[in-house]
Structures are given as structure tokens and as C-alpha cells.
Specification:
Largest sheet: 3 strands, antiparallel
């Protein structure tokens, strides 16, 4: 198993950047991400013990970074540590994954509503520039699936960063940095595997940007939710290829349509 760098402290923004443009991660962070993704993909059965010494041997590190990685995964809900018994895997179900996408879709939709109402010039310009860059990236052979996924994530971050609610922005940022959400996007691509899928996402982001610029909060909310729901379905389909599990159909909600009507009994 390969790690990117030796253990080192966190860097300030702009320093110590890795190959993907982000800061170089510590050994525990890298181990946590690789091990966490293995759990997500079903490499560990529910309740299977994770042996520290084996991980230490596999990664060629001492047990200290391994312990730190396991503690980090425990905070993300993928590992449970028992005193004097060790660490055990808690796999991420596809239903829980769907919940994560659905919750983030609603929260990002709220951010889109706020931004469409306030329309700060800097925020509109930032969103427009990033949406145009995403469109240009669709057919760029030098931009892989992971890079395209990161560009999508940066668009979402721009959306909540300019929404005018520090509380909502902090909540969404914490979900990305400290939960399973951030982990599933860092190890291998689960979405944007085809040009058609990339084009679909870029098109919806363009619709969201235009709706926000026009102050159409309902259309902006629907577009942002559609971005999340289409990605949810693709990620579930990708993981479904390596896991003998299905997702509950009632989890596969879609953006509310203004033409929909409440049925009366």
C-alpha cells in the first residue's frame, strides 16, 4: 500500500501542496482515507476486526499513525473501537449513503435560495466563472474523473461560501472535512466516469448559476438538488458493482417539480 508522503504537520493555505492541488496529508489521514474507502467498498464485513499490526505492516509504518487513523474513522462512523478488544469495521450502507446525498442536496438547495435572494456581485461572478470552467473541463482529456469531481465540489463550496449564512456554510464545510462525505471523494472516482455524465453535471450547474443570477430561487434550488441526486444515483450504481446490496427505493427522491400536485383522497 502506497502513501504519498512522510508524516508532517498541516500546512497553511498555499504551502506544501500535493499533486491534486490540496495540502499534503499526514500519514494518519492517508491511512484513514484508504482504509475508510476499503470499508465503504465492502472489503471488510460488518463487525470484522481490523488488526493494527497487519495495517502497520501493510503500510510500512509504526502503529502510532494506524491508531490515529482508526480514531479518525471512528469519528466518521466507519470504525468502532472497544477498550482492550480493538477496532471493528462498521460498513457504510447504501441507504446511509443515499441519506447523506439527500441531506446535502437539501442544504445546498437552501444555500442556492439564499444566494439567489441576495445575489452579491462577487458571488455571482465566482459561480459563473467556475460553472464555465466546468463546462470547458467536460471534453478536456487532461482532466480525469477525480479532478472533475473536485471541480464539482469547489462549485458547491463557492455556492455556500457566498450564500450569506456563516452557520449554513460552516455546517456544509464540516460535513465535507470531518465526515464520510469528504472521504468518499478522495480515493477513487465514483462518479463522472463518462463524458456524458460530466456533460450532464456541467449543464445542470450552468442552469443553477443562471437561475441564481436571475434571482429565481425555486429554479436554483431544483437545479442544485438535481446535481446532488444524479451524483447520488451514479455513486450508488458504482458501489453496487462491488457490493451485494441494494438501496431502498424510497431513498431515491428527486427534486420537487412545481407542476406536481398534492393528491387528495
Amino acid at each position: 500500500m502506497v502513501l504519498e508522503t512522510t508524516d508532517r504537520p498541516r500546512h497553511t493555505p498555499g504551502e506544501g501542496r500535493g499533486s491534486n492541488g490540496g495540502r499534503l496529508r499526514t500519514l494518519p489521514e492517508q491511512i484513514a482515507e484508504q482504509l475508510g474507502m476499503a470499508i465503504v467498498e465492502g472489503a471488510y464485513a460488518h463487525g470484522e476486526r481490523i488488526v493494527e499490526q497487519k495495517l502497520s505492516d501493510d503500510y510500512g509504518v509504526s502503529r502510532g499513525p494506524v491508531r490515529d487513523a482508526l480514531r479518525a474513522l471512528e469519528t466518521r462512523g466507519l470504525v468502532r473501537i472497544y477498550p482492550r478488544r480493538g477496532a471493528y469495521a462498521v460498513p457504510l450502507s447504501l441507504d446511509l449513503l443515499a441519506d447523506m446525498f439527500n441531506i446535502r442536496a437539501r442544504l445546498l438547495g437552501l444555500a442556492a435560495c439564499y444566494l439567489a435572494r441576495s445575489r452579491p456581485p462577487a458571488g455571482l461572478s465566482d459561480l459563473k466563472t467556475r460553472a464555465e470552467a466546468l463546462v470547458a473541463a467536460v471534453d478536456d482529456p487532461d482532466i480525469g474523473s477525480m479532478e472533475f469531481a473536485m471541480a464539482n465540489g469547489r462549485l458547491g463550496a463557492a455556492l455556500y461560501r457566498h450564500c450569506g449564512s456563516d452557520y449554513l456554510a460552516d455546517f456544509l464545510r464540516d460535513q465535507g472535512d470531518r465526515s464520510i462525505w469528504g472521504l468518499i471523494w478522495r480515493q477513487r472516482p465514483l462518479d463522472f466516469l463518462t463524458t456524458e455524465r460530466r456533460r450532464e453535471s456541467a449543464t445542470i450547474w450552468t442552469e443553477a448559476s443562471l437561475a441564481i443570477h436571475d434571482g429565481n430561487e425555486a429554479a436554483a434550488e431544483r437545479a442544485v438538488q438535481a446535481i446532488m441526486y444524479t451524483s447520488r444515483d451514479q455513486v450508488i450504481a458504482t458501489l453496487g458493482q462491488v457490493r451485494s446490496e441494494t438501496v431502498s427505493r424510497h431513498k431515491l427522491i428527486q427534486p420537487f417539480s412545481p407542476s406536481a400536485r398534492v393528491r387528495r383522497t
